[in-house]
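Researcher: I'm comparing several assemblies side by side, and this is the next one on my list. It has 490 residues spread over two chains. Same procedure as the others: predict the full complex and return the structure.
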Amino acid sequence: MGSKTPLYQAHVDAEARIVDFGGWDMPLNYGSQIDEHAAVRGTAGMFDVSHMTIVEIKGSEAKPYLQYLLANDVAKLQESGKALYTGMLNEDGGVIDDLIVYYLNDAHYRVVVNAATREKDLAWLENVAQQFDVSVEERSDLAIIAVQGPEAIEKAQSVMTDEQKEAVAGLKPFVAAYAGDLFVARTGYTGEDGYEILVPDNKAIELWSALVEAGVKPCGLAARDTLRLEAGMNLYGHDMDETVSPLEANMGWTIAWEPEGRDFVGRKALTEQKANGIPRKLIGLVLDGKGIMREGQEVVVNDEVVGVVTSGTMSPTTGKSIAMARVQRSVDAEEVLVQVRKKQIPAKVVKPSFVRKGKSLI
Amino acid sequence: MSQIPAELKYVSSHEWIRDEGDGIVTVGITEHAQELLGDVVFVEAPEVDSEVDVEDEIAVVESVKAASDIYAPLAGTITEVNEELEDSPELINSDPYGDGWMFKMKIDSGDLDSLMSAEDYAEEIADE
């Protein structure tokens, strides 16, 4: 028996197939993951992501603490509610976790980290916090509902009060705002527009039910995975982990090198890696033939294994098998072979962004 | 509780076997198996006329989530494959015991007694 989110009973009532995910009993699908995927690409779907860990960072040194803790620079966040995606690195430059940090004020930031990495993340946050005047406080009293899709915003607003609607009106991408007792962020993990809504745990079922009434389709973790992979978004523990630097995981854009004077955990190692040559890179693959690429399969060029698939699936939107693979930096072939079960099948090398806003990019 | 038709035979790797008479059997995967797999998107069928032994890996059913090997439940020769599955692999989800059948084979021995009854199979999956 795993941990249960405040929405667990709603999933059971909807006859979801429940699986263990990082110690949590979570819905994998509510029937068909392909239908759920299509709802997010076509209209609106929603996910219970309450298993994710919300942490409040408060104190006079909240800003310098996060500037040291994170590879991206929270000094970029000036407007209240503005969010930043970043890696939290170890001294070797490996990714402890990827996370989103929201700026509330100079003495208060909110961080959302992955569920499966909760314990090590909290330990690391606490450890680094010892050098600063900050408090690190987990919020286990909030649920998170991600409403995603071209009609997500319209449908989510339809269940809000006038005051709440006013609070979120004109919210820009990657910005959040308080709306009554909700914290509404225009963020997501699907490549579609939408909100991630933080809601008090005792109001979560009510909000979920209202969204169902408004025509938002409940979606499970299986659809979440195909959606994020189509969008080319990394999944921690698969596309990167502590043995991989952000430079090897398409996360170079999340490293703030300027100002040069800002020290952050992992900076030295990343600087050395850049100077000595980054050994590997993360590429996108589209299979040219029948079969489905899966995590762990080998990537072959000229009879030599040059890398491995980190995430692979059948992409419901394009009908093709797509994957991300980590290969040697030197690989510049336009086509590689992937060892799919007993066969080597050609795959086209592409930028790992396969579908955006409902449209195939491949 | 998933459907387990009483008139069929089963193996623990979740294939069902229907006796068509004259040493011919039809094989597919059970409703329980398709539930575990989720949406099926690709089927690699066995080759017609190939001779197979018990528990040979002879086909693959892939869902969005995972690939699953299909094993020969008995020794024999493949006589026919369900070509509908090439374009409509989802038949395995919607009708696992009917239009979602996978292949037919001529078995070497007419004896199906080594296989599980519906009751045995129900017990087997209850323990999972």
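Model: For your comparison table: The interface with chain B takes residues 17, 28-29, 32-34, 222, 226, 290-292, 294, 313-314, 316, 341 of chain A (CB under 8 Å).
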